[in-house]
Known about the structure:
Immunoglobulin-like; elongated
Amino acid sequence: MKNDIKINVQVAYIDNQSSVLSKKYVFAYTITIINQGKVGAQLRTRYWQIKDETGKTEEVAGEGVIGQKPHIAPGESFEYSSGAIINTTTGSMKGSYGMISDDGERFDVEISEFVLSEPHTLH
Length: 123
């Protein structure tokens, strides 16, 4: 497959920045973007849908990730960390990256929904 980008996500709850009284739950996530395809590609845009357990949804869109537009060659990966704040103990995120391959083809990479959860909240 020419454009084959895999996304791995790891999530951590940040207890010392969260506040039950303020209904502020802070999560860090680390994303690894792996190019398993045959052509290099550059990440140009990001789109996130962040949802808390009440169904309140926030959409975030913009250029690049953490101020960068990384180019990922075949067989290589790019890793970054960022964060999200929600008003409930659990929530979820999903989204997509807008990419452009070295041969000029634009394509989107879907980021499957993943859970944001304070430890011991889900069974």
